[in-house]
Design a protein that fits this description.
With 116 residues, the protein is of the alpha+beta class. The chain has a single domain (6-88), classed as Translation Initiation Factor IF3, CATH 3.30.110. The chain is 39% helix and 17% strand. The protein is built from 4 helices and 4 strands, in the order H-E-H-E-H-E-E-H. A hairpin with a 2-residue loop joins strand 3 (74-79) and strand 4. The longest helix is centred in the middle third of the chain and has 15 residues, at 57-71. The chain is elongated and about 75 Å long. The chain starts with 5 loop residues before the first helix and ends with a helix.
């Protein structure tokens, strides 16, 4: 389990904001099939959200620690019943940086159109 810096954690929280939970932990808690599903999701996405049913906050915190220990992932965030987990995946291609649109001509003020 890798420790994340606060800057890395902040960037991962921003990335995770738009994600939907891909795994739901129900009454069975952690089973072999659930851990396999989490592993598959981490391999495919590297950053996932996990929804945990149940009202016990301490139990959710323990589940987050257990999931991170068994999968080698790092905890990013725990808000309410949603857990966010990250594990770096070197097989995934790095996202290309977005290019900003460049204007071809400078903007002209309204007055410049009226005088011609």
């Amino acid at each position: 389990m890798k420790s994340l810096s606060s800057a890395e954690r902040r960037l991962l929280k921003a990335r995770a904001h738009a994600l939907r939970p891909v795994v739901t932990v129900g009454n069975q808690r952690l089973s072999a099939s659930l851990l396999k599903e989490i592993e598959t999701s981490l391999r495919a996405h590297d950053l996932i959200k996990i929804r945990v049913t149940g009202d016990d906050r301490d139990l959710r915190q323990a589940l987050l620690g257990e999931i991170c220990n068994r999968t080698g992932a790092s905890p990013v965030q725990h808000i309410g019943k949603i857990l966010v987990v990250y594990r770096e995946n070197t097989e995934l291609p790095a996202p290309a940086p977005k290019k900003r649109a460049v204007r071809k001509q400078p903007r002209r003020a309204k007055r410049s159109f009226q005088n011609t």
